[in-house]
Design goal:
This protein is mainly alpha-helical.
Length: 82
């Protein structure tokens, strides 16, 4: 549930704010989360399939994946101190 809230908070933070969320009328929160999750999974897959990095550079891939989560507003605890 925390990941769901993180993603929804990040999506809402990018919206124009009035008393309501006028750009989101008629859009179910589940659809917003589904879209953001699919985008993140696609980015992670692209990172993992990047053959320009050697296996010795694996930590670079992990760092990029952590950044995908951070862009969505979800921190990865205890894994971003390197």
């Amino acid at each position: 549930m925390e990941l769901y809230q993180d993603i929804l908070r990040e999506i809402l933070a990018r919206q124009r704010i009035e008393i309501s969320f006028p750009d989101l009328q008629g859009v179910a929160p589940e659809k917003l989360i589904e879209s953001a999750s699919y985008t993140a999974l696609r980015q992670i897959k692209e990172i993992l399939e990047n053959d320009t990095l050697s296996d010795a550079d694996c930590f670079v891939r992990i760092e990029k994946i952590i950044c995908v989560f951070e862009r969505m507003g979800s921190r990865i605890e205890h894994r971003h101190g390197f």
